[in-house]
Amino acid sequence: MSGAEEPGAPVGRRLVLGLAGLGVAGVLGGATASRKLSEWLAPAELRDPTGLLATLPLGPAFRFYSVTGSVDEVSAADYRLSVGGLVAVPATYGFDDLRALPQTSFSSDFHCVTGWTVPGVAWTGVPLRELLDLARPAAQATAVRFRSFDGTYTESLPLPVARHERTVVALGMLGGAVSHAHGGPVRMYVDGQYGYKSTKWLSAVELTEDEVPGYWEHRGYAVDGTVRA
Ligand SMILES: Nc1nc2c(c(=O)[nH]1)N[C@H]1C(S)=C(S)[C@@H](COP(=O)(O)O)O[C@H]1N2
Ligand SMILES: [Mo]
Q1: What distance in Å separates the CA atoms of residue 10 and residue 102, rounded to the nearest whole number?
Q2: In angstroms, what is the span from residue 89 Cα to ligand 2's centroid?
Q3: Can you tell me whether residue 206 is helix, strand or coil?
Q4: Where exactly are the structural domains of the chain?
Q5: Which of 71, 83, 99, 126 is the most exposed place for a label (fewest CB within 10 A)?
Q6: Residue bearing the CA closest to ligand 1, atom 6
Q7: Atom 11 of ligand 1: nearest residue by CA position
Q8: 191-209, pLDDT tens digit by residue?
Q9: How far is CA 194 from CA 12, 88, 229, in A?
Q10: What distance in angstroms lies between residue 163's CA and the mean position of ligand 2's atoms?
Q11: CA of 183 to the centre of ligand 1 (A)
């Protein structure tokens, strides 16, 4: 993963901000200020405070985000997803197990809360509710918690959002496999919610009694990540 690193991010974490399809060093060479367009800035500052970002020829491009410096690549063959917590039937799925479940495909605009959007991103994967139905959540479960094999990132959704037909355990993206940089081989995609709710490098899904604030929510983001027009 290429990227400009933001040193000195809060609580000792570095944000790696990669710019898709660019010679990052060249484009950002003199634009140090644009590196400060980090996820943890207050919302008022997120709108390109320096104006530098708007001058970059990014177009509607993805930025590749990881709150950890690097993430070890996991092959589809070695991939495992555990489903557990407050469920009657905990389970572990390999990539092929997930592929054998009902799939959904759709395209939708991807919104990062920092202000960038990628229109019409194609997704394919297992609706999370298929896995939840198989797991049989306990009556007291009201939320789902997500973990990443980056070892750090967590997120959560209330059960109704988790059961939405466009909340998917994504096995495909942009017409191909989910790349490592985009959180493959398997990541979440939660349509209608800002990107931070969609955990990359998904490793576990856990039913919980209450919604547990995730990585970015401890750093100021709203627990409700609903995209506001
Ligand atoms: N594990 C993990 N998942 C993550 C993140 C991250 O840093 N680590 N960043 C989130 C944010 S803020 C966004 S906008 C999207 C970015 O997805 P992309 O890197 O595929 O563009 O992933 C989300 N999921
Ligand atoms: Mo984001």
Answers
A1: 41
A2: 33
A3: strand
A4: 1-65, 80-219
A5: 99
A6: 66
A7: 196
A8: 999 999 999 999 999 999 9
A9: 24, 31, 11
A10: 22
A11: 8
Which residues lie across from 164 on neighbouring strands? none
Q: pTM here?
A: 0.80
For residue 189, give both structure tokens.
């995609």
Give the residue ranges of DSSP H helices in 66-117: 95-99
Quick one: CA torsion of 26, 6, 186, 145, rounded to 10 degrees?
Answer: -160
Share of the chain residues as helix, strand and coil, in percent rounded to the nearest 5:
20, 35, 50
Give the burial string for 128-160 (b: 16+ CB within 10 Å, else e): bbbbbeebebeeebbbbbbbbbbeebbbbbebe
20's CB contacts (< 8 A; 6+ apart) are 58, 61, 62, 63, 64
Instruction: Please state, in angstroms and rounded to a whole number, the distance separating the CA atoms of residues 189 and 191.
Output: 6
- Topology annotation, domain 80-219: Sulfite Oxidase; Chain A, domain 2 (3.90.420)
Q: Structure tokens of 186?
A: 């398997």
pLDDT per position as a tens digit, 5-29 = 222 233 323 333 333 333 333 333 3
